[in-house]
Amino acid sequence: MERKLVILGAQWGDEGKGKIVDLLSEGYDLVVRYQGGSNAGHTVIANGQKLILHLLPTGILHPHVKGVIAQGMVVDPEVLLQEIEELERKGIDLRGRLIISERAHLVLPYHKVLDRLFERSKGIGTTLRGIGPAYMFKVGRKGIRLSDLRNPVRLRDQIEEGIDFVKNLCEKVFEEPFELSADQVFDSLLSSYERIRCYVGDASGEILSCGGRILFEGAQGTMLDVDMGTYPFVTSSNSSSLGLANGTGVSPKFFADAYFLGVAKAYTTRVGGGPFPTELTGKEGERLRDLGGEYGSTTGRPRRCGWLDLVALKYAKEVNQLDGFIITKLDVLDTFEEIKVCVAYDIEGERIYSVPASLTDLERAKPVYETLPGWKESTKGISDPARLPQRARDYISFIEDFTGAPVIMLSTGPKREEYLWLREMPTSRASCS
Ligand code: IMP
User: Fold this and answer.
1) What mean pLDDT value characterizes the chain?
2) What is the DSSP secondary structure assignment for residue 106, as one 8-state letter?
3) Is the pLDDT of residue 321 over 80?
4) What residues are in contact with ligand 1 under a 6 Å CB criterion?
5) Average pLDDT of 398-423?
C-alpha cells in the first residue's frame, strides 16, 4: 500500500468511492476528507449493514483508523451529530479517533434557506444541503468557522450579520417570508458544539505529524469541480485533486509522492442539471438506472444515466494526474448485447477530443461512439481475475488504451468483498506512468 493515497471521483460523483475507501482504509492509519460537506453520500455495506456517511471520513468505520474532517469541508453540525450518534448506536466509538479542523466553516440553517431560493431561480439541481451558500459566505468573508464557537459573544454578532443578510435577500429580492431567528440558530449551534467540541482540533497538524499511512478521500467528482467541471453545473468546492492542498491546509509539496487513483463507473451517471453528452434518455437509460439502482444516496433522486464518456475520463486523468483507475459497477453491463463508449465529441461538425470549457460548446457536444461487444456473462461478485470474461477484459483494455492510465481494480458488487485487483499498485508514482 502507498504511504499517501488519494481517491478521487473521476466522473460526476456517485462513482462508488465510499465502498473503495472503506475497502482500502484497512491498510491506512489516517483517512482525511477535505472538501464538500453533507452533499456527499458515501455508501458502505459491511457485515450485512448499509451505512451512508455524509460528513465523516468513510475509513473511520475501521476501529484502527483515525479520521480527519479538514479545513476545506463545510460542516453542518446537526448532520455531523446525527452521524456520530448513529455510529455510537452501532457500537462504533469515535473518541480519540476523530479530528475536525477548527478552520472548517459551518453550514447553518440560513445557508439552506438560500440554497432553496437560488435553486428556484437558477436550477443547478443542488442537494439543498446549503453547500453553495456556505462556500459563498466563506469566500465572501461572512462565514463562521468552528473556532468561532469558542467566543459566544462574537458568535452571536456573526450569526446576526448572516441572518440579516439572508433575511434581506429573502424578503426584498425573493419576496419570501423569513422565519429563522438569530436566537434559534445561536442556541442550537451552541448545544451541538457541546457534543462535538471534544473532536475539534488542528487537522493540518494531525496530517503533517502522522507517521503512518494516509488516505485522502475525495467527494463528488472531477466533472463537478468548481473550476474544472461543467461550470456552473458544479458543486462549490474543488472536487478534483486541485482541492487537496487548500482543503487539507497542507502544502502541495506534501502530495508530490502520493499515489492518485480515480474511481469511475463502467458507464456514466449524473444527478442534477447540466450538460451530459452521453446521456441516454430513453429505454436504455432506464435499463441502466434499474440495473445499477441509480438513485441518489443523499437525496434519493433518480440519476441520469448514459454510456461511458471516455473523453471526460481522459480529461479527469489529466486534470488529476491520475496514476490509475478503479472501475466500479462493471456487473451492471453484464446483460448488454453491445456497449458504447464515447471517444470524441462532435460540436457543430468539428471533432473535439477534450472537455471544452464553454458551457455552450458542452451543451452542443454530441457523442461520437465506438461500439464494443457485450460479454453477456455474470461478473457479479467475482474476485478472481481469471473469471473475468475476455470481452470484459477487452472493455477494460479499451479504457486503459484510450485514457493512458491502468485500471488497477474492479468493483463487482456493493459488498466489501466484491472486488478484484487487476494490477498491483506500483510502489512509486514514477514506476507507473
Ligand atoms: P451541491 O453540491 O449540493 O451544491 O450541488 C451541486 C451539484 O453537484 C448538483 O448537480 C448535485 O447533484 C451535485 N452533487 C453534489 N454532491 C454530489 C455527490 O456527492 N454525488 C453526486 N452529485 C453531487
Assistant:
1) 95
2) E
3) yes
4) 13-14, 39-41, 124-127, 129, 131-132, 219-220, 224, 233, 235-236, 271-272
5) 95
Report which protein residue has its CA nearest ligand 1's atom 10: 272
In CATH, what is the architecture of 263-421? Alpha-Beta Complex (3.90)
pLDDT of residue 426: 60
Cell digits of residue 376: 453477456
**What are the residue numbers of the active site?**
14, 42
Tell me, in angstroms, the distance from the centre of ligand 1 to residue 235's CA: 6
Label residue 302 exposed, middle or buried (CB < 10 Å: 0-12, 13-18, 19+). Answer: middle
Fold of 4-101+203-255: Adenylosuccinate Synthetase; Chain A, domain 1 (3.40.440)
Q: Ligand 1 pocket test: which of 15, 55, 118, 220 has the largest number of ligand atoms within 8 Å of its C-beta?
A: 220
Write down the pLDDT at residue 427.
Answer: 53
Convert the pLDDT of each residue in 22-32 to its tens digit: 999 999 999 99
Domain ranges for the chain:
4-101+203-255, 105-196, 263-421
H/E run at residue 101 = strand 98-101
Lowest mean pLDDT among 42-46, 133-137, 144-148, 343-347: 42-46
- The Cα 113–Cα 180 span in angstroms is 9
Whole-number Å distance, alpha carbon 127 to ligand 1 midpoint, is 6
Q: How far is the CA of 61 from the centre of ligand 1 (A)?
A: 24
Lowest mean pLDDT among 75-79, 358-362, 411-415: 411-415
Task: Name the CATH topology of 105-196.
Answer: Adenylosuccinate Synthetase, subunit A; domain 2 (1.10.300)
Q: Which residues pair with 197 in a beta bridge?
A: none
Nearest ligand 1 atom, CA 129: 3
pTM for the full model?
A: 0.96
- Using the atom order of ligand 1, give the atom closest to the CA of residue 36: 2
Q: How far is the CA of 263 from the centre of ligand 1 (A)?
A: 16
**Residue of 23, 26, 31 whose CA lies nearest to 5:** 31
Work out the angle at residue 253's Cα, subtended by the Cα atoms of residues 251 and 258, and round it to the nearest 5 degrees.
Answer: 110
